[in-house]
Amino acid sequence: MSASHGEGAGWEQRREFGGRALSWDLQKLFKSHASEIVRALRRRGVNPETAADITQDTFVRVLALGPDDGFEVHNPRAYLHQVSRRLSINHQRREALVSMVELDDAISEKIADPAPNAERVVYDRQVLRMTAIALSELPERTRIAFEMHRLGEHTLADVAQRIGLSTTRTWALIRDAYRHLIARTGGI
Questions:
Q1: Which CATH architecture has domain 118-185?
Q2: Which ranges of 44-164 would DSSP assign to H, the alpha helix?
Q3: Measured between alpha carbons, how far is 92 from 45 in angstroms, rounded to an integer?
Q4: pLDDT (tens digit, 9 = 90+) per residue, 94-114?
Q5: What is the pTM of this model?
Q6: What does the domain layout of the chain look like in residue ranges?
C-alpha cells in the first residue's frame, strides 16, 4: 500500500484488491462522511466518545485492509457505513462479554497499593545517596545557598540577603550547584 502526500492532496489509497486497483481520497471521504457516521452510530445508542473512536477505526480499517476480496465497491459512503456498523456490533459484543464496574474513590484507594514497589524504593534510595554525596562536595556557601533556595523554599533575594551576597552572585552559586548535581547524578 502506498500513500501520497501532495500540496492540498488528501491521503489516497492505491492498493490492489482482488486484481483491481482501489483509489480513494480518504481525507476527502473523512471530511465528507465522518460526522455522518458518528451521527448514525449515535442513533444506534453509541455514546459520543465511542462513536468518535469507531469512526476513526472505520477509516483505519479501510486504509489498512480495504474491501473484502470479491467485494466490489461502487459506493465508498455505503462501504464506510457498513464497516462502521460491523465495528459497532463488535464493540457491543465485547462490552457484553466484559462487565464494567464503576468504583468510587474510596474503594479505588483500598484496592490500589500506594506504596512503591521494592525496586522503586532501592532506586530512590540510591538517587538520594548520590544527591547527598554531590551536595557534600559543594563549597559550603554554594551548598547553603542551594539548600535554602531549593529545600528551604526561600526566595533568591532572601537567600542573597542571608548569606551577604548580591542576587546575581547568589543565583550563580545556585546555578553552579544545579550543574554539579546534574553532572554527579547523571541528571537523574
A1: Orthogonal Bundle (1.10)
A2: 48-64, 76-97, 105-111, 118-136, 140-146, 156-163
A3: 10
A4: 887 777 677 777 777 777 677
A5: 0.44
A6: 12-97, 118-185
